[in-house]
Amino acid sequence: MGASPKTSLYVASIPFGDVKDISMPLDQATQKHRGFAFITYFEKEDAAAAMDNMHNGELYGRVLTVNYAQPQKMKGGEQGWASQAVWADADTWFERQQQEEEINRLNVEHQATVSAAEEADRKKLQEAQEGETEQGDAAEDPMAAAEAEALKVT
């Protein structure tokens, strides 16, 4: 009798490094292997070597497709399909909401500070212009200059 499929995969995979686990999912209805497996190595480099050497290789007459496994996707999450349950991103959503509220509060504070500074500058400029106007009026108006001179003499 031949070796089991799991043993055959183990024997084919062991030259590339220490194998941590081999998982071969079964069809629920027939209880037969579904035609693929997940092989986990202890080291990333070993997994990369297995992928490089076994991809498009042949094992018992079947061409192998070897790549990194992706997390199983399930309905939910922010993009519709996700690798996690709908409620898994609730904490990050709440944190983002708090950060956005804090940013909005800081923006309002900043805008109020800028407005107050602009108003103070506007008042200083207006006071300076009013002071120049009073001095300028006396210098330009000869009558006002004569009256100011007469008041100085007496």
Overview of this protein structure:
Among the domains are: 5-64, RRM (RNA recognition motif) domain (Alpha-Beta Plaits), CATH 3.30.70.330; 94-125. The chain is built from four helices and six strands, in the order αββαββββαα. The protein has helices at residues 5-13, 44-54, 90-140, 142-153; strands at 19-23, 38-41, 58-59, 62-63, 74-75, 81-82. It has a two-stranded antiparallel sheet with strand order 1-2. The chain has a two-stranded antiparallel ribbon with strand order 3-4. The chain has a two-stranded antiparallel sheet with strand order 5-6. Strand 5 and strand 6 (81-82) form a beta hairpin. Helix 3 crosses helix 4 (142-153). The mean pLDDT is 82. It comes from Physcomitrium patens.
Provide keyphrases for this structure:
single chain; 154 residues; mainly alpha; Alpha-Beta Plaits; two-stranded antiparallel sheet; two-stranded antiparallel ribbon; 6 strands; 11% strand; rod-shaped; RNA binding; PPIE_RRM; Nucleotide-bd_a/b_plait_sf; RRM domain-containing protein
